[in-house]
Structure formats: C-alpha cells, structure tokens
Request: fold
Amino acid sequence: MKIVESIESFSAIRQRWKNETIAFVPTMGALHGGHLSLMEKAKSVGSKVIVSIYVNPLQFGPNEDFQRYPRTREADLELCESLGVDLVFYPDTQALHPKGWVSLTQVVPPIELVNQFCGLSRPGHFTGVATIVLKLFQLVQPQFAIFGEKDAQQFAVIRRMVSDLNLPVQIVPAPTVREPDGLAKSSRNSYLSSASDRHQARLLFRLLATIQELYKQGMETTDEALKLAMESVLNEGLYPDFQLEYLGAVHRETFLPTEILDEDTRILVAAQIGNVRLIDNTLINEPLVLPDRDGALMQLTV
Ligand code: PAF
Reply:
C-alpha cells in the first residue's frame, strides 16, 4: 500500500494509474467499522482504491472539536493496509493549502440544503466540506466516490454539488454501520467516556426506531410522529446529559422537510450528550440492521 503526503508524488502516481477505475473514499481518519464498509464498497466498484485522510480545518467552527478530533495515524494505516487499500493520501494543511486556508475560493452549497438541521448549529460547515471535497476530487479524479449515509445532509450537499457543477464522478452511498445496541458507528463515539453517556447515546437510535414503528402502525403526519416519539422515548427515564438538537423528516431525494410520512421519508436526529454531538438517520422503511454478539447481522426494533 502506498502512503503519499505530497501533491506532487500523488499526482505522479495518479498519472501512472490513468487507465484504472479509481474508487475514492475521503475520510478524516479515526477509522472505524463504518469506514470499513465504505472501503469495501470502493473495492467492489474500482480497480484501485484511494483513501484520503485529512482533518479539514475548514469544516470545524471556532468552538468545535478540531483540536481534539481523534488522530490515530498508525491504526488507520494498518486498517487500510489490511483491507487492501491501494493508496492512502495523507496530506497536511501546508501541502493542501500552501497559501493558508483562511482566505481561499470556497464552494457554497445551495441555501435550502444548509439552512436546516446540522447547517443551523454548524454555520459554514457544509461550505468547508464541499470545498475540501471538490479540491480532493480535482486531485484524485475518481470515477467513483463513496460517502456514508450516516452523514445524510453531507451526502445531499455532495450529490448536489456534483450535479450542479457537472463533476465527472459517481457518488456511491454506503449504509450506516451500527453497534450491537443500535448506536451508529462514528469517530466521535470515542468521546463517550462514561457508561451513562454511552447509554444516553443510544437514544438517537431509539428515536429513529420508534418513528419507524409509529409509521408501521399507520401514523402519517410527521409532526405527530416526531412528538409522540420524543414523549415516549425521552420521558421514560432520566437522561440528564441528553439534549436533543433536532428531530426531523425530509424527502430522501430533495432533502427538503416533509409534513407527510411516506416511503420516501428520511428521519434525521442530532443530539448533544454532555459535550459530545452525535447524529443519526434512517429511511422510514429501512430495516435497522445490527450485528449480534457473534458479529452476524440481525434486525432489531425498539
Ligand atoms: O465525512 C467526512 O469524514 C468529512 O466530512 C469528509 C467528507 C472527509 C470531508 O472532510
């Protein structure tokens, strides 16, 4: 597996691979089982898999966790190697932004995609994401790029950027991977330091599963379902550190809020558990598949 830090060395290899089908997995490192599924997806569509690891300062707000974001270089490289990744692009900020990253050309996603959900509490976040992803696409020139469905709003922003700017890359979704109790795998789960925080983090999954259940029982109005799910899940115990940021429903294609629940609805949730911010989502009909203790996959409800 090649590990490349400079743009010059990367471009030389990319030139040699000009006849390959490149499947690209952009990441910020701290790789976990969720990334694993992205890489497996990449292997299934490309003849060469390129992973980038770069903690992108542009997508973190001034009071966010850029400094403490987990950086686990050796473990990340080992994991990539074990999965048969062909090249890890590991640039630093000096390599990517030699003129500094405070003032530069940026990609601003359409307002209707970012003036809601994560975009409200993280102003500028999706501009930071779109800017770095476009820059990486320009360098890597992949035919396929794999993004996790766990970051549903990010997925919608990238897909829209590719369509609006006619980028010659196909965006491939990879499903969310969950812990046995339903918690979606995320690099930020490593911040959940106490058993109580870990327990409260599971409420995100339970809210999603409850709304799925209400829909199955015939509930059709978004407001009603969200309200009932919040009442039934959040009132059943004491969750002192759990602060719901949003619980909402959007159309799976347009990512615009929807008042009626139907098979095209995606449910989204974000919450703070102490000072850890987590997000999750699911399609209304999607089976929430969890590994059992032996690692086999099984389907679980609330
Ligand atoms: O999803 C992520 O890890 C990041 O937002 C991404 C796409 C690598 C851009 O920095």
Summary: The chain has two domains: 2-174, 187-299. The chain has a mean pLDDT of 94. DSSP finds ten helices and eleven strands in the chain.
